[in-house]
Specification:
mainly alpha; Phosphatidylinositol Transfer Protein Sec14p; Methane Monooxygenase Hydroxylase, Chain G, domain 1; 4 domains; two-stranded antiparallel sheet; 7 strands; rod-shaped; CRAL-TRIO_dom_sf; guanine-nucleotide releasing factor
């Protein structure tokens, strides 16, 4: 044990010793030692006798001169003697015996007056033993009727009839043993040693035993005083009032812990030993070391003290036990009170923190920033604020956990704790919901402003790109440019869509700010009109730029498409002309023969028909190109002269090709017809020759005429067929000469056109 603990322990013991010091109740009453000099005057005594009702008998013997006592001494004597019997006996009322034998009325009169004025108990009857002289008898009868208690002038014989002789002392012809000096000693030292058969003559042992005997009155008063002090402790322990602040609760709990020493160190066991010691002597159960037995007289007042002593002992034990229980109960209640005050103080601190920070929060909670940098700064400040709030929530969770544990343990203020805990939780949730709502708004504001500023920063770049007059010439470059141009609008549109989407989401949130909490949220009535107006302004600015960008982008897209259309037109024209130069004209120039037989002519005709089917796709493309030339020329983007020049060249070339193709087809068709007619005519002539060589003649004139008519018909038909066939041949030859002439003319025209292009380039 440390020196500090030893000092505290010593202080506690001194406190207990001081608390149980003699005093208090013991100073409020008289004891035998206080009036021992009056008791020895034997003015009055309690013999222990009882009247027929069981009431105590108080005797005023004769020849004791009570008139010599001071009035105060007489009052104190009566007060003391009235307190000796037990409450039960005392409540029945005292019977007074005033012995006037051998005395005068002047001697008894002060006693009666003192009884009238000073006796605290109830007087049932006052027996006055008649004086011996006649005149004294008369004076007594004349003066005893003015008192408030009943008096009875009685003779000694009549007294023995009114009261059992066993309850009267020998001076009244009774058998009750009474020794006044012994009675005084008993009141002072409780017991008196009485020699027994085995007693020794050692006076030192008698002295030691007498010294060891406890005073009865001392014990009773000490017991009552201790009960009073224990009762005072009980009143403290049963006091329902509890401190209403934490410091008071802590102080009261410390004081209560100090009371434990007063309870546990109460001298109940020590006093119980004294009480049991007294009981052993009253009951005669105690024997000294020399075999001497100590008993008291048969005084009923002493015997009646046995239940009182036993009751006092029981009361002391039960009171101390009860105090221990009360102390434990009170300790638990004070600990609960201490916990409650800690809880209340913590809750109050949290309420103050929430209220203070809610006020700080409401200062600028509708600001979302007018640019990305400001929004980031607001979000950063809010994040720090929210982080500090989350750190505080750890304390709130601890407080709520403590509240739950107190309620689960059966705390006397469970309802209050639940109510305060619920209120704290609601207040925190309200603030947390507002913080979450603001976190959402600021997070959306940062994203919106960042994308909006990125969009606006790119507007100039996008605009310059769309307005650039540099347009590629090559088809591949134009296709790449168109792809890049399409990618550009997709990028612009995607960025624009993100800005508008974030702006719309932010506006929806600003217009309906309560999302994660109820209508009782501290942000339920937030006025975001200014912030919403700012967001709308930014969105409208972005929208205006977007429309302008789409307009100029579309313009450049048209130019690119027109330029690409021109280049594709030129490419397609070139492809057609190349095909004519490399395939069509070559085929026609190469295939000028008409064949020397019908079979060969038909083969060439079939080959030409196949070539026509092959050339049909080129012819269709050329027709489409000539139709598209007008559209390209009318756009204004392309050089109409160049377009029309290309178209005219294509048209001329196609006209030449188609003419040559048609001439070739006509020649082949004429050749096939010519050879077919030649073949038919030849066969006809051969058949006719055979028929003409026949020797068959007609048998009659009619037959001869018929044969002549047939011959003439055949001759005319043959001549006509021959003439037609020769004419077809001549026509074919003429067509061949024309084709050759046209071919030479077209060749010279083509050479001149080529020279003109070279000169133009």
């Amino acid at each position: 044990m440390s020196s500090g603990d030893q000092g505290a322990e010593g202080g506690a013991e001194k406190d207990v010793e001081y608390y149980y010091r003699p005093g208090g109740r013991r100073n409020d009453g008289l004891k035998a030692a206080d009036i021992v000099h009056v008791l020895r005057e034997r003015v009055a005594y309690l013999s222990g006798g009882r009247d027929r009702r069981g009431g105590p008998i108080l005797t005023f013997p004769s020849h004791t001169h009570p008139e010599r006592l001071k009035h105060e001494d007489l009052r104190r004597l009566m007060t003391y003697l009235a307190s000796v019997p037990s409450d039960e006996v005392r409540d029945k009322g005292f019977t007074m015996i005033l012995d006037m034998r051998g005395t005068k009325w002047e001697t008894v009169k002060p006693v009666l007056k003192a009884l009238q004025e000073c006796f605290p108990g109830n007087i049932n009857m006052a027996f006055i033993i008649k004086p011996e002289k006649f005149w004294e008898k008369q004076r007594t009868s004349l003066g005893s009727s003015k008192y408030n208690f009943e008096t009875n002038m009685i003779s000694l014989d009549s007294l023995n009839k009114a009261i059992e002789p066993t309850q009267l002392t020998r001076e009244f012809d009774g058998t009750l043993e009474y020794d006044h000096e012994q009675w005084i000693q008993l009141r002072l030292t409780d017991l008196q040693p009485v020699p027994s058969d085995e007693s020794t003559d050692d006076p030192s042992e008698d002295h030691n035993i007498i010294e060891d005997l406890s005073m009865l009155e001392e014990f009773i008063w000490k017991a009552l005083d201790l009960l009073d002090k224990l009762g005072a402790l009980g009143e403290i322990l049963t006091n329902p009032e509890l401190p209403d602040d934490l410091n008071g609760a802590q102080m009261v709990l410390e004081e209560h812990n100090q009371l434990k020493k007063r309870v546990t160190m109460a001298p109940v066991e020590q006093l119980a030993m004294e009480g049991h010691h007294i009981l052993q002597r009253i009951t005669g159960e105690y024997s000294g070391s020399g075999g001497r037995r100590y008993v008291i007289s048969g005084n009923a007042d002493f015997q009646s003290a046995v239940p009182q002593i036993s009751q006092l002992l029981d009361n002391l034990q039960s009171t101390k036990q009860h105090l221990n229980q009360l102390w434990s109960v009170k300790k638990m209640r004070l600990e609960q009170c201490f916990q409650l005050r800690i809880f209340e103080e913590d809750v109050e601190k949290m309420f103050e923190w929430i209220s203070h920070n809610r006020d700080l929060f409401l200062v600028n909670y509708t600001e979302i920033g007018t640019c990305h940098q400001m929004a980031v700064e607001l979000e950063s400040e809010h994040c720090q604020f929210a982080t500090s709030a989350e750190n505080v929530y750890v304390n709130i969770e601890r407080i709520l956990g403590m509240a739950q544990r107190m309620c689960d343990s059966g705390h006397y203020a469970s309802n209050t704790i639940r109510m305060e805990g619920g209120k704290l939780e609601r207040e925190w949730k309200s603030l947390a919901a507002a913080l979450e709502d603001r976190s959402t708004v600021l997070r959306m504001s940062v994203v919106f402003h960042k994308k909006a500023e990125q969009y606006l920063a790119q507007v100039i770049v996008w605009q310059n790109t769309c307005e650039s007059i540099k347009i590629p010439s090559g088809i591949e470059e134009l296709e790449d440019a168109l792809q890049q141009h399409q990618t550009l609008i997709e990028t612009i549109s995607q960025t624009y869509a993100e800005v508008c989407g974030d702006g719309k989401a932010l506006l929806d949130t600003l217009q309906t700010p309560v999302t994660s909490s109820s209508a009782n949220s501290i942000t339920a009535k937030a006025d975001y009109s200014e912030a919403a107006g700012h967001v709308l302004d930014v969105v409208h600015e972005v929208l205006a730029h977007q429309r302008h960008l789409e307009q100029i982008w579309h313009g450049k897209k048209v130019k690119l498409h027109q330029r690409l259309g021109l280049r594709l037109f030129q490419q397609d024209v070139k492809q057609v002309i190349d095909w004519l130069n490399n395939h069509g004209d070559v085929f026609l120039k190469k295939n000028t023969s008409i064949g020397k037989s019908l079979q060969r002519a038909k083969a060439l005709q079939k080959s030409h028909e196949h070539f026509e089917s092959v050339a049909r796709n080129t012819i269709t493309n050329a027709e489409k190109l000539l139709a598209a030339a007008d559209e390209l020329a009318q756009t204004g983007e392309c050089d109409a002269t160049e377009i029309y020049s290309e178209a005219r060249e294509l048209e001329q070339r196609m006209h030449q090709f188609l003419s040559s193709l048609q001439r070739r087809r006509n020649v082949l068709d004429m050749t096939v017809i010519f050879y077919s007619h030649v073949h038919e005519l030849t066969n006809w002539l051969e058949n006719l020759h055979t028929e003409l060589q026949s020797t068959e003649l007609a048998n009659s004139v009619e037959g001869a005429e018929q044969l002549m008519a047939q011959f003439n018909q055949q001759r005319e038909t043959t001549v006509e067929a021959a003439i037609n066939t020769v004419g077809e041949g001549e026509t074919l030859l003429e067509q061949l000469r024309v084709n050759r002439s046209v071919a030479l003319s077209e060749w010279f025209s083509g050479q001149a056109l080529k020279r003109g292009k070279k000169h133009h380039l």
